[in-house]
């Protein structure tokens, strides 16, 4: 899902985290299979968050840095 | 997608814009800085500034991790990439950042083995797949990105991957903000806080802004409604004569940050005494280096690095753009000698750079006004 064009951008360089839904977790390896809003899939490091299937995570550089909890903004 | 679509609702956006308009004092000029390059990108992409009253001005801050890397660090990276047997890896935007004698892309064209990666873990995988080569990862980014580098180094150490190292350019956001606030030529009324940095460090490190400088800061998400709501919250604080750190992005940012990430950062990194920022000069304790426990993975320890300081090109005004002193289009070379295809300054390289964001989106609304 990486892209590094000057209009679409490089989300890693841009300090941007992307919302992704957890499809499956591998607790032993600390990884999860996730999908973004367009359905693109990626293996994500989940050592820094508590993640379960169906959760939405904020993912940056293939690492989940937060779980979205849905509290009203 | 849940948590995304509802924050792009046009009807709600117009309603919020109406509330903002109703709340501003006529005749008063409000100058708000969006700290993070991700916000700059959203503001131009969704034309958020077109929805704001004319007396609410958004200025761009130093929070684009590519834009703040000085030329000397690029030159040092290229020197490492040219060493025999090295596979040099970095994020995509970094490839096009000019050093004093070309960019990483230019060095690649001249034969250096430089490869784009999406995450540091990709670089580690490359090291494991090429045990006869030395794989160096050029790490950039604020506190948002540093945990990913830290976890990768912990994996490398645990798995005994000896041919992997990191040239660390991770920076921290608070020291440059303090430097900006101390700058005499800058007048700001409030800050749109960097939501994804705060995901890691929390909102507490920004409490000095209202406490010491009397300015409000609202930690903000990146969707259009997030940014509009944050502007509304800042203006409400000003109207009510309050100066606080508030959190608009509560669905993602806990006030105390991500404690696991902070623990990992503390284990792998330590503060550098000082670090040079593009356009801002040297700032004390504003960047990270690998801690003693991870010194074996420090590319600057493992290889010889020139460490030469290079002055920014004279034509480039990135420093003034990064401080919010001038707008991108006020730079002498904007859109002429300096374009995203052939950038002179780093602000034109990354899409989160104020110049590139304005070049790609904002200039069209200015052209509409001119017509």
Strand-helix topology:
The complex is a heterodimer of chains A (73) and B (371).
Chain A: E1 18-26, E2 31-35, E3 41-45, E4 56-60, E5 63-67
Antiparallel strand pairs in A: 1-2, 1-4, 2-3, 4-5
Chain B: H1 10-23, E1 30-36, H2 37-45, H3 48-51, E2 56-63, H4 71-81, E3 86-90, H5 104-109, E4 114-116, H6 120-129, E5 134-141, H7 146-159, E6 164-170, H8 174-181, E7 190-194, H9 195-201, H10 208-213, E8 217-220, H11 224-239, E9 245-247, H12 259-268, E10 269-271, E11 274-277, E12 281-284, E13 288-290, H13 299-302, H14 318-322, H15 354-370
Parallel strand pairs in B: 1-2, 1-7, 3-4, 3-5, 5-6, 7-8, 8-9
Antiparallel strand pairs in B: 10-13, 11-12
Helix pairs in contact in B: 1-11, 2-15, 7-12
- Number of DSSP helical runs of chain B: 15
Strand order of the largest sheet of chain A: 3-2-1-4-5
Query: What value does the Rg of chain A take, in angstroms?
Result: 12 Å
The count of DSSP E runs of length 2 or more, i.e. the number of strands of chain B, is 13
Roughly what percent helix of chain A? under 10%
How does this model look, in words?
The complex is a heterodimer of chains A (73) and B (371). In chain A, 0% of the residues lie in helices and 40% in strands. Chain A has 73 residues and is an all-beta fold. Chain A starts with 17 loop residues before the first strand and ends in a 6-residue tail after the last strand. A five-stranded parallel β-sheet of chain B has the order 2-1-7-8-9. Chain B has a four-stranded parallel β-sheet with strand order 4-3-5-6, sandwiched between helices. Chain B folds into two domains: 314 residues, 3-Layer(aba) Sandwich (Rossmann fold); 43 residues, no CATH class. In chain B, α1 packs parallel to α11, α2 runs parallel beside α15 and α7 crosses α12. The model of chain B has no long low-confidence stretch (mean pLDDT 90). Classes of the chains: A mainly beta (73), B alpha/beta (371). Chains A and B meet through β4 and β5 of A and α2, α6, α7, α9 and α12 of B.
